Amino acid sequence: MASVRGMHKVEFYSSLNEIKELYDQGYVVLKILYEEMKKRKEWEMSYWSFLKYAKRELPLKKSTKTETKKETLKKEEPDDEPPIAKANFKTGKKWNPHTVDIDPDRIL
Question: What is the pTM of this model?
Answer without folding.
Answer: 0.51
